Amino acid sequence: MATIVAEATGQAILHEEHEQSFLRKYVFATDHKVIAIQFLFTTLFFLMIGGLLAVLMRYQIAWPAKTLPGGGILPETMVASGYILPEFYNSLVTMHGSIMVFFAIMPMLVGVFANYLIPLQIGARDMAFPRLNMLSFWLMVPAGILTLASFFVIGGAAAAGWTLYAPLSARPDLSGVHLGQQIWLVSLVLIGLSSILGSVNYITTTINMRAPGMTWFRLPLTVWALFITAILGLLAMPVLSAAGIMLLFDQTIGTTFFLPAGGGQPLLWQHLFWFFGHPEVYILILPAMGFTSEIIASGSRKPIFGYKAMVWAIVAIAFLGFIVWGHHMFQSGMNPTLGLSFTISTLLIAVPSAIKTFNWMGTMWRGNLRLHTPMLFAIGFVAMFAIGGLSGIFMASTPVDIYIHDTYFIVAHIHYVLFGGSLFALFGAIYYWYPKMFGRMMNETLGKIHFVLTLVFFNLVFFPMHGLGMKGMMRRIYDPTGYQHLQGIQDTNQLISISAFCLYASGFLFAFNFFWSLRKGRKAEANPWDATTLEWQTPSPPKHGNWKEIPVVYHGPHEFSHPDVADKDWLAQNERPDVTSPAGAH
Amino acid sequence: MSDHAAASEEHGHEAPNYLLIWLYLFILTVAEVAVAFVSHFPKWVVVIALLTMAMWKALLVALYYMHLKFEPKRLRLVALAPLPAVAIMIIAIMMEYV
Amino acid sequence: MAQAATATAGRAPERGLDVYNQKVGMWVFLCSEVMFFAGLIGSYVVLRFGASDSWAQPGEVLNVPITAVNTFVLICSSVTMVKAFAAAEAGDQKGIKLYLVLTFLLGATFLGVQVFEYTHLIQHGEWQGSHGFTPRAGLYGSTFFTMTGFHGFHVLLGVICLGWASLQAFRGRWGSDHYHGIEVLGLYWHFVDLVWIILFTIVYLI
Q1: How many CA atoms lie within 13 A of A568 on its CB side?
Q2: Most buried one in A80, A93, A135, A579, CB count within 10 A?
Q3: Interchain pair A237, C32: CB under 8 A
Q4: Percent of chain A residues past pLDDT 90, beyond the cut
Q5: Chain A neighbours, 3+ Cβ pairs < 8 A
Q6: How far apart are CA A586 and CA A566, in angstroms?
């Protein structure tokens, strides 16, 4: 594995001036491109693990009375006599969510693409703080090792849900998990620090290191999205760290922050967690929206419809994201007036999201569509995210939410926005920027097959969950057949599970394409997509230092089909100073 | 704003009197302890007075020792950025207990 | 990381904040620290509001006079820190060494007094009949030790950096053309002082 990584990253950096040791260049790297690729391999690995946990869960839900094939290889504490134990099931549920959020999606969106794209797209040679960047990655490694190790300690991995509600999470005598929960909290603090330090880098770099002519309103939407995301992370993550530390203290040194027996407030945990948690989900979607804007403009050969509106929509989503967290807590017994204010702010946040959705459609309208794999995933993002957003409208209203809270309706929503949204956009982004990273194209036929399989199976898995939720199937339950009101839904559950196995399998098609193309993919030129942003105006992969000379920027980021440019349908940001933008502003 | 172009390396202003600020901080600290223990005002008056003095001290440190008073406006914006988030968090959670 | 403007056909890079990267970076980092302490202090405020009867009166458990003096020590360290920065700007090598070492010593003193206070409280503190005041002493104990403990941890990190900076001063590293490190360390140190100003008031006096 190490040699493949090394070869890949070797292809990713053309050897230049100073000779660095293997260790300095590929392991303790400070080049933002290498760090991004380190994050990429790590997060793809955790994506696979998170998916595996879900596969195990789905097997249990669909066939609770059957033994797990091959379950014998797992320890008796997890699978006893072939049956997944309820305690282990709780850990599966918890760690699936935790690993996917903190070790797969968030670091892939930010650790990979903020690192790779920000310096290149703003015309800088590297991040503001390359060594801090290296520290960010290397904090994630022990965090990840701890997380995986927590499965194998006595008591198993954390099992109180990814949301770690107190007092369950604070009381080992209630949850049955002692060390695993503490290990997870330590891991969380480490990865929180990694994220915060990363944010410091992304924010400083974007503010201070833009090339000449790269004004704020000439930034690609990807950079805007990643910049605002970094601000969200900077302000929200520390609150989780504080709360996580208080929870850790409750478990270890006898404090009683969240324990009613000692005068503590469990509701305080929920407020702190969701104050972080809601900005967190916008961290998980905004970069995806940025990639989508980029790919759709490029794939439609048209400028983004309403660039400025798109920027303000990102800002509005981020700002509103700080005042909606209570909508996760409508059932908690919180102050009803507070609940009303959260309903209003949550409904409001649909507006900028809708503006973005219409603008993507406006971009594609009468465009010269190039339906390559990245474009397919980007269009898929818009459609799936729209469905996820629509289910959100239902959940925003307190009376409706009281009925569907903690049911599979919520699970459907989460996965439409996180998988149909974030992961689709991530797949698109990987197919799109792979040539730049590795100097080779991924196989287009396999990509299209991967897209179709993913789209079909994804919807087969998650769309029926809306119905299941309305029928009252609760989240996180071990055996649906044990409930009177859930008789008759097992057929649906089995369909979902079979589709889930197929969905997981289709991921391996992507993995095969990814690794095969590293060596055998068609060699990529500097700009295989005829795109306008700065990263495409330098070789694939870029040399250490990115450019011989820092580019000067003359145009906006998505100048496709410019009326004054007759010979081609795109205009790079750093060419033809004599041509001005139609909008005239810059 | 244009004369700020060279301001990052050199301060275009006189250094504040750091010792004077230190004296203010000392006086405020003494005043705080006095108000907390010696006064006979109702509790809520004491709390407001103490919080005001604490904020005043914090502002003195931020504006003069941390130089914010003399930095470009945009940097002051960066420094202020977390405050609305803090206010939102505390006010909203407080509503549970009021 | 300065990029030569000459490499870009006479066009200057975009202005940004007109402040060098490390200073911007430190301020951005301090924003995250504000949120971290806000999480701890906000929780304290909320928990206390919900349990105001079972809270100690100022001075009942904690030693306010010693802590007031300690607060003063930390404030003095901020003065010496800013004087170290002024000395660096002016290229005053003697001043740089003197004030950095003074700041280090004052910071270490603050920590020493804190450790002394903690040990005294844990061994001899009295609260609600228990012998010894620890993090287990209800919400009052939980919040006190967590907030002051994390502040102390931040002071410790600062003191370590000050030790390093002082060593560097004796190696002649700092000067009127190389003082950004001191300025940025100073920002962190003043922030730590600022947080203590708030903590002292809220935890010890209210």
Answers
A1: 10
A2: A93
A3: yes
A4: 83
A5: B, C
A6: 21
Q: Which chains touch B (3 or more CB pairs under 8 A)?
A: A, C
B81 interaction partners in chain A (CB closer than 8 Å)? 231, 235
The token pair at C95 is 């001043």
Q: In 3D, which of A503, A515, A510, A377 has the Cα closest to residue A52? A: A503
Closest Cβ–Cβ partner in A196, A209, A272 for C43: A272
CATH value of C20-49+62-205 in 2.30.30.180, 1.20.120.80, 3.10.450.50, 2.60.120.340 = 1.20.120.80
Distance (Å, whole) CA C109 – CA C69:
11
In chain C, residues with a C-beta closer than 8 Å to the C-beta of B8 are 18-20
Q: In chain C, which residues have their Cβ closer than 8 Å to the Cβ of A197?
A: 29
Whether the CB of C84 is below 8 Å from some CB of chain B: the reply is no
pLDDT in tens, A412-448: 999 999 999 999 999 999 999 999 999 999 999 999 9
CA distance B44 to chain A (A): 24
Tell me the pLDDT tens digit for each residue of C93-151.
999 999 999 999 999 999 999 999 999 999 998 888 778 899 998 899 999 999 999 99
pTM, two decimal places: 0.93
Do residues A260 and A198 make contact, with C-beta atoms less than 8 angstroms apart?
no
Give me the architecture of the A2-537 domain, per CATH: Up-down Bundle (1.20)
Domain boundaries, chain A: 2-537
Q: Is A547 helix (H, G, I), strand (E, B) or coil?
A: coil
Domain boundaries, chain B: 13-66, 72-98
Per residue in A216-262, pLDDT (tens digit) is 999 999 999 999 999 999 999 999 999 999 999 999 999 999 999 98
